[in-house]
Amino acid sequence: MDTERKPTYDELQEEVASLKQPLVEKDRLIDDLKARVDKLTKMLFGQKSEKSKKKGCESDASTDRLSEDTATSYVPKRNRKHGGGGRKGFPSEIPRRDVHVDLSLDEHYCDCCGREYVFMDIEITEVLNFIPMTCEVIRYIRSRYKRECDCRKHKIIIAEPPIRTIDKGSVTTEFIAAVLVNKYCDHLPIYRQVNRMFKNLKLDISESSVCRWRDVAGEMLEPLVDVAKQEILSGNCVNTDATPAPFRLSKENHRRVNGNLLVYVGDEEHPFNIFDFQENQSAKGIHEFLKGYSGDLQCDAHRNDDALFNPENSKRSNAQRIIEAEGNRLHGRCPPIEVGCHVHCRRNFVEAEEDEPVHVTGFLKLYRKLYKIEKEIKDSSIDERYRVANTTRRRVSMRSSNVVAIVWTTPRSFLKAGSDWRASLR
Hints:
9 strands, extended, alpha/beta, 40% helix, 13% strand
């Protein structure tokens, strides 16, 4: 009679390991789901601020002392002894209207002896007055003339009216500019301007008319936008960012979809900003705007920006990539230089502070030092910032595990340092 073979010790070990493997995978899945739940809970109900928690005097004393050359470039703010803020004067750009206040005729003489007072000087007191928004109707009174001779067919001659922004429109350019400023600068929607502001002025203007004026003004400003785009792309550095912008499709029963609102900011020598709205969240808009640009581009780690810096990884056919690479080689064009964002890079360390406090604390201290130096030279000119950066140049070395970050505290290195760290966080 054959006896059943007993498994060996190694076979039992393998069987135990195979049975434990699903449990290990489930534990990993549970830990991953718990981490996601904790992250979402913190995003919804946690603290929104990313400011560092000051624990004693963690900052290095060396960063608290700037060089003597730097100290002479800045005038420290003088604290008031009595703690009063004082009353600030009104800007000189505000027009002044003088109201002369004088004594009455009876008050010009002394009550005791009756002798007349002698004028000494004046005292000026300024108070702020508010003039509510008003409108006026401009009447163009044009003279008409009659031709008594028979030289031409047209016998009535009248002067041409001034050119208006809206052809045959009933409003001036100043009126349209005020509507656009209220909407795009003061965030006052058109329907609120029509239903509140205009009605308070007893103006009966339909909302559709105001929207038509807005569209016409936008078309007339297109050449100015093209010039601003050329100025931005001719600079050494461009800052860009995108934010979701929901809108409704009028042709599809006002269905709500998400678009993208991208902003492009030029450098200080080309101070122009352009807001570009895209009806989807693809990378087509940013690629079309930055086509041919090869300077520094500061942006976050969004996937739409990856193909800008690494075109060979974009979703294009091999033939298209070869043709574009050959064209770039012949015309001397190169992809833009990636410049990272320290705010986005630091955010990853803030999120990992609770799990890895030992490793993360060193990087947060480093960012405090960088932000402190950047704050001190923020309002200075480019040449002044460069000079201060050279006089206060120091190397800050922070070691966290096997990661070594060396940052030279110059304004341009502030930007480029983040691109190296960002690659390790992807």
